[in-house]
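Archive record:
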Amino acid sequence: MKILSIESSCDETAAAVVENGRNVISSVVATQIEQHKIFGGVVPEIASRMHAEAISAVVEEALQKADCALVDIDAIAVTYAPGLIGALLVGVNYAKGLALAANKPLVPVHHLRSHIASNYITHPDLEPPFLCLVVSGGNTLLVKVKDYTDFEVIGRTRDDAAGEALDKAARALGYSYPGGVTLDRMAQTGNAEAYSFPHPRVDESPLDFSFSGLKTAVVNQIHNAQQKGETIVKEDLGASFLKAVVDLLEKNTKAALLENPDMKKLVLAGGVSANSVLRARMQNLAKQMGVTLYLPELSLCGDNAAMVGAQGYYEWKAGKRGTMELNASANMPIEEDE
């Protein structure tokens, strides 16, 4: 079964053709990073306009690279939640028009489910159940994936996401968006023990995360040094901050594995899953806990449409269909369906 998939939840306009949820025939991504760098982060209105400008050409290129026409496509999958509402609406409305014109089934797909599904492409042998740590710019979750369309969140951030905290820390250090990539490079040469940061915890929910305090701490560290005329070693501060974020992610993931001894597979997903420090620490944790670790291919960590096509296949098999009344949603828990 061939699915044409569309992704436009943030600042990537993407389309792909995916067969049977595992085989990527084509994948095209048009990024907007250079345009948003000027502003230090994604500007929703600019993102929406650029999606509208790019989406037709991106979809056409995906079909051409797959050597397919619309008649060869069995269904159209599209990200409809969560994300920037204006950006999502571009993809949703384009997919609806395409499905109506071509008389193809429309499959709505949750963005975070797609990130998890990127591992089905990288690891054709991976099947639920498993525990997944989803880490991105907008979300940080610990999820029990019971089946392809059955999810239970057992830990979530109470405030900021890990990826957002990394980007804000890099910006405070004077680096451009996206800052998480810069901090990853710093970790290769910086001293991660040079600066200390708090390790916030949520007492009543030990598997939940909190990153806002860390974000405040790094800003205060920089301001205090400036007021005292002290020199900040940026590489050391960046490496130390990244270590503190990964410490929290590792600690809660370990606790989740201890609470769920039946989970013998650990999966990493989301944009921050490309971070080299996080990947290394998860590999060590998996070895320590005696579980098998699954990491997405680096090219599939960021937003892309191939992962939408992968999850779209399983949503289609589960009977999920969208109508012409389908709307986008800026916020929607991973457990819920439209």
In short: The beta strands are 2-7, 12-19, 23-31, 75-81, 106-110, 130-135, 140-147, 150-156, 265-269, 292-294.
